[in-house]
Every structure is written in structure tokens, then in C-alpha cells.
């Protein structure tokens, strides 16, 4: 069993809902965790499906919150976006892009296959420096508040099990198979190197 806490990254598209809910729960459980998005912009639901609110990754959660209050406080309160942004700004100031981070992680969890592909592509395009392995695992989570919460608990349980393995590199495949059977979800997994 590892005595050092896992260094975990959780990644979704906009670093708003799924990755931040998992960030919140993992942080409370004592993991060293950071969260990211892979998109070119941060997108939040707007007044219609074809009219999202689009922000730059440099925009703080507080600025997004104030912008949405100004646009339509009732709508964004009712759909849970203001509550989500309020949680986010208590965790960190702004969303972050995975592609701009050079920190080293033991485990990177993505929340949809497209994001998994972007993370793996980014990691494999970097020049290898230390040859330290990082396990990249995709856990498909629908992008809504309820599924983000359920997915975050599943991610947390997975991280706790990985934390308690004697040898992550040898035990991960069997562990993921158990989680697939238990959760009814398929997990993608690969190893990249720093």
C-alpha cells in the first residue's frame, strides 16, 4: 500500500461541472487533486441549447457568476449553474486548461471519451523527460449535475482503491475490471509517460 497520497487530475471539457465535483470530493478525502478542462473555451448552458455562454479560460468563476446574475438570475438559479459556480469559486479562482499544465500526476481521470483522447494526445505529443508513468482512465459521466455527483463518488471510490494497491502498475487492470462489473460502466485505460 502506498503511503504517499496519489497525485490526481480530473479532466472534463470546461472544468466546470464533472471535474469540479470530483475535485471537490477528492479534496475532502485528502487526495492531492487538480482539475482541468481540455476545450478551447469554457461553455456553460445559456437560454437555449444553441446559445451557450462562452468564456475564456482566464475568466474567473466569480466573473462568470456575476455575468450570469446580470443576464438572468432566475434562469441560472433554477438550472443550478449559479450554485455550481458558487461551489467552483470556493475550490479555486478559475478554470484551467490541461494542455497548459506541466505538473506530474500519478493518475489522470477523464469524464468522457473525447476528453480522454485529447489528454492522451497531449501527453504523447510532449517530450518525455522522466519516463515516469501516468495512468489515464476514462469514466464516462453525463454532463448534468446529478450524474456529475454520482460520477464523482465513483471516481473517489476508484481513487481510494488505487491508493490502497501495493502495485498500481500490476493491479490496475484487475481493479478496473472489478469496477466495470460493479458499476456497469466501461473504463478506458492507458499508460503515458512524462
From TrEMBL:
InterPro entries recorded: Ptyr_pPase_sf, RNA_pol_II_suA
One BP term from GO: mRNA 3'-end processing
Keywords linked to the UniProt accession: Hydrolase, mRNA processing, Nucleus, Protein phosphatase
This protein's record includes keyword Hydrolase: yes
The keyword Oxidoreductase is assigned to this record: no
GO molecular function: RNA polymerase II CTD heptapeptide repeat phosphatase activity
Pfam families linked to this entry: Ssu72 (PF04722)
E.C. number: 3.1.3.16
GO cellular component: nucleus
Source organism superkingdom: Eukaryota
Reaction equation(s) it catalyzes: O-phospho-L-threonyl-[protein] + H2O = L-threonyl-[protein] + phosphate; O-phospho-L-seryl-[protein] + H2O = L-seryl-[protein] + phosphate
Cellular compartments annotated: Nucleus
Family (UniProt): Belongs to the SSU72 phosphatase family.
Purpose of the protein: Protein phosphatase that catalyzes the dephosphorylation of the C-terminal domain of RNA polymerase II. Plays a role in RNA processing and termination.
Protein name stated in the entry: RNA polymerase II subunit A C-terminal domain phosphatase SSU72
Naturally occurring in which organism (per UniProt): Neovison vison
Amino acid at each position: 500500500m502506498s503511503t504517499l497520497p496519489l497525485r490526481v487530475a480530473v479532466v472534463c471539457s470546461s472544468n466546470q461541472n464533472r471535474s469540479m465535483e470530483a475535485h471537490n470530493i477528492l479534496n475532502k478525502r485528502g487526495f492531492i487533486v487538480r482539475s482541468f478542462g481540455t476545450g478551447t473555451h469554457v461553455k456553460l448552458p445559456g437560454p437555449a441549447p444553441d446559445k451557450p455562454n462562452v468564456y475564456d479560460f482566464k475568466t474567473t468563476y466569480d466573473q462568470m457568476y456575476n455575468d450570469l446574475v446580470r443576464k438572468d438570475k432566475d434562469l441560472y438559479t433554477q438550472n443550478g449553474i449559479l450554485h455550481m459556480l458558487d461551489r467552483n469559486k470556493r475550490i479555486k479562482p478559475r478554470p484551467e486548461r490541461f494542455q497548459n499544465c506541466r505538473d506530474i500526476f500519478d493518475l489522470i481521470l477523464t469524464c468522457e471519451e473525447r476528453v480522454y483522447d485529447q489528454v492522451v494526445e497531449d501527453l504523447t505529443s510532449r517530450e518525455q523527460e522522466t519516463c515516469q508513468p501516468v495512468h489515464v482512465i476514462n469514466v464516462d459521466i453525463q454532463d448534468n449535475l446529478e450524474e456529475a455527483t454520482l460520477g464523482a463518488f465513483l471516481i473517489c471510490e476508484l481513487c481510494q482503491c488505487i491508493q490502497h494497491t501495493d502495485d498500481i502498475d500490476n493491479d490496475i487492470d484487475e481493479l478496473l475490471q472489478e469496477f466495470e462489473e460493479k458499476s456497469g460502466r466501461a473504463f478506458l485505460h492507458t499508460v503515458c509517460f512524462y
